[in-house]
């Protein structure tokens, strides 16, 4: 067990795979476990899940800096962005970063748009030639952070900005409220069960999006049978029916994350990542994700019991709330160990 930021994590060993699957604190685990037990005892009803859905939606809005009325409920980033892609004129020009996560790019390609990949540092200055800029705030592959200030300064008034905050929301405080789309999956840094995702929509884009995926939940309990079409007047009209157990966990995780000192969370996560970078003679960075390309690093880390992912041949490490200096030092020791000692 580890105590961190006022809660407890049931973890032994060195878990640095948050960019793949976040480690929930015990109150989240308990809430979901209790909901599963109640389900198994036939003690649940559909309306009782409306409260956790609303709580999680409100906390996501707080983390992004938008009103809850602008937040759409979904289950995955790609599905939510599919709505956006379908709303664009045919053949729209979409700029994105090299090696962007495909849940961001595939919906636009599948919708028939022209998607152009650029080096991340060139993206801001090229935005005026695009109808849409779609990019992750923090890159999944290696933790590179987009220059949000430059992007905001350079983007043209008619260019839509789509930000995937899946790898940033929960540790990186940033003003994202100006973007047309801010989307995030909940099961990584937001420490929620898989099956919960949210999307904040600007008013100008919401007017253009057709609610083509909407079912009964987009209209509420008064819209479960029969015509005519009747949907919520705000962003809830785009909602997918929620994954109930995922929302139960999110309703605990997201308000807690939103209550924390965001600067302290960032300092903790980035500080540990930079402790590793210093120990491995890598330049400091402003990301909680570290990409380690030292020869044999993934194998050495695996033998040392460090849980992480491999992306592009490099070990990808993510430092979040439960991690400690001992975790960072274990990485440095494992990677620096000679082959004979491993």
From TrEMBL:
Record has Magnesium as a keyword: no
Keywords, alphabetical: Aminotransferase, Transferase
Task: Please give the superkingdom of this protein's source.
Answer: Bacteria
What name is this protein filed under?
A: Aminotransferase class V-fold PLP-dependent enzyme
Task: Cite the PANTHER family for this sequence.
Answer: CYSTEINE DESULFURASE, PYRIDOXAL PHOSPHATE (PLP)-DEPENDENT ASPARTATE AMINOTRANSFERASE SUPERFAMILY
Identify the SUPFAM superfamilies for this entry.
Answer: PLP-dependent transferases
Specify the Aminotransferase class V domain's residue ranges: 44-282
| An example Gene Ontology molecular-function term | transaminase activity
């Amino acid at each position: 067990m580890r105590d961190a930021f006022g809660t407890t994590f049931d973890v032994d060993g060195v878990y640095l795979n948050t960019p793949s699957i976040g480690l929930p604190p015990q109150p989240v685990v308990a809430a979901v476990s209790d909901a599963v037990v109640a389900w198994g005892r036939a003690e649940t009803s559909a309306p009782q899940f409306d409260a956790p859905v609303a709580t999680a939606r409100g906390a996501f809005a707080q983390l992004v800096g938008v009103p809850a009325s602008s937040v759409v409920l979904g289950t995955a980033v790609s599905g939510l962005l599919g709505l956006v892609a379908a709303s664009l004129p045919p053949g729209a020009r979409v700029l994105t970063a090299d090696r962007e996560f495909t849940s961001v790019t595939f919906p636009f390609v599948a919708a028939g748009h022209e998607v152009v990949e650029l080096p991340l540092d060139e993206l801001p200055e090229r935005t005026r030639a695009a109808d849409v800029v779609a990019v992750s705030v923090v890159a999944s592959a290696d933790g590179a952070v987009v220059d949000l200030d430059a992007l905001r300064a350079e983007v043209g008034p008619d260019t839509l900005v789509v930000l995937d905050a899946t790898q940033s929301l929960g540790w990186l405080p940033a003003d994202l409220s100006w973007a047309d789309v801010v989307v995030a999956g909940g099961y990584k840094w937001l420490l929620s069960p898989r099956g919960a995702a949210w999307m904040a929509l600007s008013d100008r884009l919401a007017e253009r999006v057709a609610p083509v995926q909407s079912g009964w939940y987009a209209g509420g309990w008064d819209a479960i049978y029969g015509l005519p079409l009747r949907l919520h007047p705000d962003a809830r009209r785009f909602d997918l029916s929620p994954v109930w157990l995922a929302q139960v966990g999110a309703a605990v995780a997201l308000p807690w994350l939103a209550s924390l000192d965001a600067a302290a969370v960032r300092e903790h996560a980035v500080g540990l990542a930079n402790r590793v970078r210093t120990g491995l003679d890598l330049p400091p960075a402003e990301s909680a994700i570290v990409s380690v390309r030292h020869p044999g690093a993934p194998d050495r880390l695996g033998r040392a019991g460090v849980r992480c992912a491999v992306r592009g041949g490099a070990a990808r490490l993510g430092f979040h709330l439960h991690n400690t200096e001992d975790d960072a030092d274990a990485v440095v020791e494992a990677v620096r160990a000679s082959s004979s000692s491993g």
